[in-house]
Amino acid sequence: MEIIIAVAVVALIALFLISQYNRLIRLNITVDEAWAQIEVQLKRRADLIPNLVETVKGYAAHEQSTFDAVVTARAKATSATGVADVAAADGMLTQALRGLLAVAEAYPDLKASSNFLSLQEELATTENKVAFSRQFYNDNVRSLNTAVKTIPSSFFAGLAKVGEREFYEVEDPQDRNAPSVKF
Hints:
rod-shaped, 183 residues
C-alpha cells in the first residue's frame, strides 16, 4: 500500500512538472504568434503605402519632401528587426503618414477621388488591425512575463528556455496624445 501511495505521489509531481513546463512553452509560442501578427499587419500597411503615395502625387506633385519622408519611413519599417526597432520604425512611419494625409487635406479634388478614398479607408482599417495586434501581443507578453516571474512556473522557465519578453511600446510621446479635431 505504501508503494502505491509513493508511486501516486511521484506521478502527481511528474504531472505537475510537465504541466508547468508545457504552460510556459504554450505562452512562449503564443507571444511568437502575436508578434507574427504585428509583422503581418505592418507588412500589409507597407504594401498599401506606395499606392497611396502615387495617388496623392498625381494631385500634389510639388510636395516631394512629404513623399520622400513616407518612402524613407516605409523602407526603415520594412527592414526593422526586434521589438524596439520595429516600434521605433512604426512610429516614424505613422508620423510620415500623418504628414501625407495632411497634404491630402489641402486638395479637394484628391479628397473626392474614389481611389484615394478607398486607399484611405483601407489604411484606416489596417491601422486598426495594427493597433489590435499590438494590444494582443502586449497581453500575451504580460501573461508570459507573469508566468516567468511567479512561483511555481518561475522554477521551470530556465528548463523550458523561456524568458521575459519585451513589450511593444510607443517611443514617440506625440503618439501618446489624442489628435485634436477642429472644424
